[in-house]
Amino acid sequence: MNIQFREGLEAASSPTTKTAIADCDIHPARATRTELYPYLAKRWQHHLEVYGVHAYQGMMEGPPYPKAQPNASRRDAYPPEGGPQGSSLSFMQKQLLDPNNVQLGVLNPLNTGQGIRNHELSAALCSAINDWQIDKWTSKDKRLKASIVVANEDGLSAAAEIRERAGDKNFVQVLLLSRNVEPLGQRRYWPIYQAAEEAGLPVGVHAFGFGGNPITPSGWPSYYIEEMVGHSQCQQSALASLVLEGVFERFPKLKMVMIEAGFGWAPSLAWRLDKVWQRLRSEVPHVKRPPSEYICEQVWWTTQPMEDPERREDLFDVIKWIGWDRLLFATDYPHWDYDEPSRVLPAGVSEDNREAFYLGNAKKLYGLA
Amino acid sequence: MASLIAGGVDCDVHPAVPHLTSLLPYLNDYWRDQVTTRGMVDLVSQSYPKNSPIVARPDWRPETGKPGESLEDMQRHVLDPFQLTHAICNPLYGVQMVFSEDLQAAFCRALNDWLVKEWLDRDKRLRGSIVIPTQSVEKAVTEIERCAQDRRFVQVLMLVMGDTPLGKRALWPIYEAAERLDLPVGIHAGSAYHNPPTAVGWGSYHIEDYVGQAQAFQTQLTSLIVEGVFVKYPRLKMVMLESGVSWISPYLWRLHKFWRGVRMETPWVDRAPLEIVRSNIRFSLQPFDAPPDAETLIRLFDHMQSDELVLFSTDYPHWQFDGQDALPEGLSPDLVRKIMIDNPHATYPRLN
Q: In which band, very low, low, confident or very high, does the pLDDT at A308 lie, cut at 50, 70 and 90?
């Protein structure tokens, strides 16, 4: 947690001695404020200069809950050439990809075109960030794969963006955030799921986002830690909505990835859904099977931030309940709560499970096996 | 199923107010007139629609009226067959939804007086929770102090979803009064519906609201812990009622990890969240939201690393189990005794 690397530490460990891994949650950043402008029409450049993005939260810049570190990122992750953490490919290669022998890195750009009240601007920014991911990242390093960022509140334009990118091997998933104007199972988001299913792309739901709803069902809390912990509750509610609205029933080939929200809560949520569904299924006849079955068949989980029991082996119970074949290792680079690949798993994991956890599951899910 | 033992305490039963008009005898002339002149309707929360299957077990559902409105039924269904020494009454009448602090205070006062007369006075095994008008902290404290003179009130009752997170400092006078008067604060499932019932907005379904209670409890525990409620009031106990229990350990693992990472933000939190929960937070047993096999249960309780966290409850008349199977399979006789007798008595000083 919150670790600071000493200069040269990564360089000292040779990649050839490390097993290849997938990192399913990397956050690329823009080096400058105007880095997307080449991908935006003049109208939108002007709009951003005059009005800003007008998000579903009050701050013109930055988050309403101040992060623990600048940009919520590691202090040692500033690129030597300047710019914020995560904004330099060469430094990302040097600090993350090479020393950890990352064979597959999935990019999840945040603070892009999502959570914006002007839906046309949202669509323009999402399209721009998708072009930018190819130009700046995936075309320059074949280990990196992009996520199709979509205008989350406008299902039709989001679906159009997915269809436009479908078949482009630079992209391996569609990216949504957990917090939206409505719970993610609602009909306004169905065109996204339909297009993703047609394109054979998983939909990743990354913790975070702004939809105007307080981050607790009892109003706005005081602290950043409450927002951080709260993301897992948001994710639970979003997943419950997906199940109970029948999204998995309607789109049986849809695969979803819960990103950066933990996974320790998954068994408990599935058990609770099953138990309550037995009582109340007459309200949701479109949910034809026990909710846990949809979750087991159609949901994957990235690992970071791994829950951290006092007795670390307690985690094995939870993983057993979820399945070793459902977890996708992630570091969350360059964010401060980065999980170090060599330290996240307690001892006592079989070679097969270790391989699946670090690489195999991701390659299979993202069609790269 | 594990065997029940006699002499237990049921920490969560729900006597129902038959109708708003049942409270008229406990309102003064002004409020009685307001209720009738303005045509106020029964305060039934959509957290618990009367006919929802989860709101009453089929064999506990009366032919007429609301489930839980008859003392004789409660005696016949739980107090006698479970051989209880005490049952703690947590009325879920929807007074929390009221926005006016004056009206809410009048309703809470009436509800508490109704509980004394219609229930506590009629069965010596029953104990009560003080329902408070949270729209006004000052009025809430006044109501706590008024009711606390009757030792049969053993707890203060709040809903898990209200206007603000429960740790917020503005609410602390409530906790000060509760600690001073030997009253744990029970936080029960349910919403005032002053905020969307999930942190990602309004869902479509009753089932979604019910599933979401567990997430609401998680956010409230975070708030209570990081705001420093238990630093300020170290003797205060809080009981999560109808919260579910299988989420507790994984939730705490996550909170603990983040607390270690950003504790500089809340430096007054001088103990690990795990320790705070073990000393100050308790959970009612039902609904036990885990698969019905002994192996899973044993692992879940082992993860908690404490046999003091869980308090027996039937959640009467809600439908959480069938027959006499209130205790899930896999509990050892020692743990049954802790859950049914020792833990409730250690939590509620006024039971002793």
A: confident
Q: Name the residue with tokens 């989001």.
A: A158
How do residues B250-282 score in pLDDT, each as one tens digit?
999 999 999 999 999 999 999 999 999 999 999
Q: Does A14 have pLDDT greater than 80?
A: no
Which residue of A68, A215, A218 is in closest CB contact with B262?
Answer: A68
- Name residue A174's beta-bridge partners: A148, A203
Tens of pLDDT, residue by residue over B104-125, are: 999 999 999 999 999 999 999 9
- For residues B56-90, b (16+ Cβ closer than 10 Å) or e, as one string? bbeebbeeeebbbbbeebbbebbbeebebbbbbbb
Token pair 């069902």 is found at A217
3-state SS track over chain A: CCCCCCCCHHHHCCHHHCCCEEEEEECCCCCCCCCCHHHCCHHHHHHHHHHCCCECCCCCCCCCCCCCCHHHECHHHCCCCCCCCCCCHHHHHHHHHCCCCEEEEEECCCCCCCCECCHHHHHHHHHHHHHHHHHHHHCCCCCEEEEEECCCCCHHHHHHHHHHHCCCCCEEEEEEECCCCCCCCCHHHHHHHHHHHHHCCCEEEECCCCCCCCCCCCCCCCCHHHHHHHHHHHHHHHHHHHHHCCHHHHCCCCCEEEECCCCCCHHHHHHHHHHHHHHHHHHCCCCCCCHHHHHHHHEEEECCCCCCCCCCCHHHHHHHHHCHHHEECCCCCCECCCCCCCCCCCCCCCHHHHHHHHHHHHHHHCCCC
Q: Is B15:B74 a contact under the CB 8 Å cutoff?
A: yes
State the average pLDDT over residues B198-212.
Answer: 98
- pLDDT for A343 equals 85
Residue B330 CA to residue B2 CA, distance in Å, equals 6
Those residues whose C-beta lies under 8 Å from the C-beta of residue B209, and which sit 6 or more positions away, are: B46, B47, B191, B197, B198, B203
Check if the beta carbon of residue A182 is closer than 8 Å to that of residue A207: no
B165 contact residues in A (CB cutoff 8 A): 216, 218-222, 226
- For residue range B292-319, list pLDDT tens digits in order: 899 999 999 999 999 999 999 999 999 9
Selected for mutation to probe chain A from B52, B55, B172, B211 (highest A CB count within 10 Å) is B211
CA distance A280 to chain B (A): 6
Residue type for B35, please?
V
ipTM of the complex: 0.97
Give yes or no for residue A191 having a pLDDT over 70: yes
pLDDT of res. A116:
96
Better-predicted residue by pLDDT, A61 or A256:
A256
Residues 6+ apart with CB under 8 A from A275: B287, B289
Amino acid type, A239: L
Q: Which residues of B touch A213 (CB under 8 A)?
A: 195-196, 198-201
pLDDT at A3: 46
Tracing tokens 């001892």 back to the chain, one arrives at A347
pLDDT at residue B306, rounded to an integer: 95
Collapse the DSSP code of B314 into the 3-class scheme (helix H, G, I; strand E, B; otherwise coil) and give the result: coil
Q: The tokens of B344 are what?
A: 């409730």
Res B130: pLDDT: 99
Residues in A 168-227 with any Cβ partner in B closer than 8 A: 178-186, 211, 213-226
- Chain A hits for B274, Cβ within 8 Å: 310
Q: What is the mean pLDDT of chain B?
A: 97
